[in-house]
Amino acid sequence: MVVSYNWLKDYLKFNLTSDEVSSILTSTGLEVEHVECVEQIPGGLAGVVVAHVVECVNHPDSDHLHITKVDAGDGELLQVVCGAPNVATGQKVLLATIGTSLPTDDGSEFKIKKSKIRGVESFGMLCAEDELGLGASHDGIMVLDANAVPGTAAKDYLQLKTDTVFEIGLTPNRVDGASHIGVARDLYAYCKLNNIPCEWTLPCVDSFKTGEGKAIPVKVEAADLAPRYIGITIKDVKVGQSPDWMKERLQTIGQRPINNVVDVTNFVLNELGHPLHAFDAAKIDGREVIVRRSTPDCKFITLDGIERTLCSDDLVICNKKEPMCIAGVFGGAESGVTENTKEIFLEAAYFNPVSIRKTSKRQTLKTDASFRYERGIDPTVTMYAAKRAALLICELTGGKIVGEPQEFCPTPFKKAEVELNFARMERLIGKEIGSDTIVKILDYLEFEVSDLTSEGCKVKVPAYRVDVTRECDVVEEVLRIYGYNNIELPANMKVSINPSLHPDPEVVRATVSNFFTNKGFLEIMNNSLTKSDYYTNLKTFPAENLAMVYNPLSQDLNCMRQTLLLNALEVVSYNINRQSNDLKLYEIGNVYSFHPKEGDENPVGNLKSYKEEQRLSIVVTGPGSKSWRNELCSGNYFLLKGYLELLLQRFGCDPYKQLETEAAPSDLFSEGLEYKLQGRRLAIMGTINPALAKKFGIKQLVFAAEVSWPVFFDLVKRDKVLYSELPKFPEVKRDLAILIDESVSFAELRKCAFQTEKGLLKSVTLFDVYRGNKIADGKKQYAISFTLQNPEQTLTDSAVENAMNKLLSTFEKKFGAQLR
């Protein structure tokens, strides 16, 4: 929201500087994000001064140039060559001194320099209107009043206007700040509380009178979507340009003047925060305005020339034949005001905020009107806004009111009532500010106080604050005007210490993040909203389990993600397209799914149908890089598997002892593993299916894993740190090379080994896998290292041999292994 300093002073007379206003607005909750000085002429004609032409003679080498000597107020005469036909001795003129920058038509600047014209030096320029940006005339230089004082800055002599605009970052609940009067109201409350002189005035509409004739009637068929609707008919309007004061107001806040009717609606919008719309009455077929829901699949062309398809939930303003406007969002191409308009129908209404928001989202239309309507405007000022605009239109166009305002408002709007307890409010505030101060602030903010006692009171909340419904909301209103910075910290603070959870979820999360960051991974953060097309034909995360979004911002953000992996593939694709091929990424985020229960008649509206879960994703891809110290190390399946198992081991988990594994889903991975903890999926990992990667434009292999955070956290809870004395006796290592079937996994051999030799065996490691020459089809060779140790005594050769023979014998019987 852009607010003009000068415009604010139309409603609140004060002597504060723009910097002071900016500071006050920020302290009251209307954060000023940017302040800019706006000048009537860019640069403010700095360097241009009033000068007295003391002497004027013809140039000896020109038939149209003159050599003048001018007094610029410092007592010295400057020689200036001038080509204007009207320059003469004794005139008071405007002189652009050396170094002055003057605006040009193309937005650039023209800098005045010392020059030599036809052999005569010139120390400035005598200026015409167009050269100063004051007009279009170039017939000659500007000749000033004889009383003008040499040396006076042109800015002061011409009384050029300057203004300051504040760009306010509105929070969604502060739509009352989307108007100059709304901002002035907060400023007024602050000034009154702090005894800063100010005077609050609002435009008067008492001069509004009903006219002769019959006004265009209004018929509202959708009262739930248009609880209040007002129409005023104005005839004999003459559409043309707005006066300068109106243009300046709109241009200052960045709006383009259009004509005196449309400009009034925009002016009142920014003055009161209440949207208005003007229709050409001649285009209202049947001379009746009908407010109703659209017919299904209705085609409608809006002001921007785009044909849009409306649905039955969209509210439209119609004549007896067809729609003329999408209510509260955008006007139609055929019913707008043009230079030929002679009669207008002025609309002022309060529309259902939810309806406007849904229509705006559905039609992907964001307008100044929809911005305010969907947040909830003040319904009690609708008639005031209509009369204010009607009076301005009559003033600027010469129009006349026809008949009476046509109003539909079957149910009066009731203000929210809140009961306040002063002692409880002061506890929330953190300081005893006194009930008198509380009541004063509420009065300044237009709260209606009643039933006032020493303990509390009742208040009626002004309709412009749709978000204030509870006592704590009122406390916030009081506190922002009183000033958060005026609440001192107490000398003693009481802190209640709660025993921390073990393990602490935040500590675990930070440990996981540090683990991957220390290993060269980059953390990514993606939007939880994603594209439903990604889940088409995906069995692992079926599309029917998607939590869909009503009225999505776009079809690319129309559902909640079921997995982090597809978002990760988006990031991989984005980076590869920018020549960043080597990637190690991780993300911790939430995923969502929809699981309707049998017999539920409304599963979509039942929160129990939805599931939210935190996940961890890990991605490795890229050919790697090679240097003089390192060989090429590309991302691969076993590198990812190593990182995942290192993470599990970091939290005390032995993947081989505590987890079961099986093949990962094939539609997600071309090869991979699924880790399970007591039947629950802990993680899936593997090589992303090339067909899936192709959807994202990825040609290189991508290796990814996703960990279920709740299951992982259950695993972490089991981590108990135990201490034991370092063994005094040495380890013994032995290797076996065995030939086994392809179907036998190392995990099976490892598990069998520990079941066979429970006393001495400490570790089992696979250090080579061979397939090829002299190895039969369907067979493979494993080279396995075994570490044995007795904590009580040194192992003898016979004890080692017995253990190894027992292991080999078990492998032969159980897996058909052959010693190589």
List the helices and strands and how they pair.
Blueprint: E1 2-4, H1 5-8, E2 12-13, H2 18-27, E3 32-39, E4 48-58, E5 66-71, E6 77-82, E7 92-96, E8 101-103, E9 109-111, E10 115-117, E11 120-122, E12 125-126, H3 129-132, H4 154-157, E13 162-168, H5 180-193, E14 199-200, E15 218-220, E16 228-235, H6 244-252, H7 260-272, E17 276-280, E18 289-293, E19 298-301, E20 307-310, E21 315-318, E22 323-326, E23 330-331, E24 344-350, H8 353-362, H9 368-373, H10 382-397, E25 400-408, E26 417-421, H11 422-429, H12 435-444, E27 448-450, E28 456-460, H13 471-482, H14 505-518, E29 522-523, E30 529-530, E31 559-560, H15 565-576, E32 583-594, E33 610-621, H16 637-650, H17 655-658, E34 660-663, E35 669-677, E36 680-688, H18 690-695, E37 702-708, H19 709-717, E38 732-741, H20 746-756, E39 761-770, E40 779-788, H21 797-815, E41 818-819
Parallel strand pairs: 15-18, 29-32
Antiparallel strand pairs: 1-13, 2-14, 3-13, 4-5, 4-7, 5-6, 7-12, 8-9, 10-11, 16-24, 16-25, 17-24, 18-21, 19-20, 21-22, 22-23, 26-28, 27-28, 30-31, 32-33, 33-37, 34-35, 35-36, 36-37, 38-40, 38-41, 39-40
Helix pairs in contact: 5-12, 6-7, 7-10, 11-13, 12-13, 20-21
The secondary structure category is alpha+beta
The overall strand count is 41
User: Low-confidence runs (pLDDT<50, min 5 residues)?
Assistant: none
Instruction: Please compute the radius of gyration using only Cα atoms.
Output: 40 Å
Share of residues in strands: 25-35%
Largest sheet: 7 strands, mixed
Please state how the strands of the largest beta sheet are arranged side by side. Answer: 29-32-33-37-36-35-34
Q: Please tally the helical runs, counting DSSP H or I stretches of 4 or more residues.
A: 21
| Mean pLDDT level | 90
- Percent of residues in helical segments? 25-40%
Termini Cα gap: 80 Å
Shape: elongated
